[in-house]
Amino acid sequence: MNNGKVLVADDDAFIRKLLNEFLSFYEYNVECVGSGEDALRLIETGHYDILITDYMMPGINGAELIRQIRNQNLSLPIIGISGSVDEKDFLSAGANFFMPKPLELTELKYAIERIFLL
What we know:
By secondary structure, the protein is an alpha/beta fold. It has a single domain, classed as Rossmann fold, CATH 3.40.50.2300.
């Protein structure tokens, strides 16, 4: 049983549903939000083991979300996902990993497992 708590921030409802179902299957506790602002609000009030964030979202984008989190909580592991920007945009903001869309779900699972082993 895993029970790690994962926060997914993506404005695409299909991606949120897909990741929620996929990660829940592996017994992660998953919460999903559609904006960077909602993700920040949840991070400020709760504990998460991993954040998975898209880049293109209304309001603050994924890189700005990561920068704001890094200013508050340096230890939260973050996986950036995007089909429109490359990994340097996420990694320079402070993400631990980057995965291009369309996502390879088995690769995402391995990245999450590596984070939990660190």
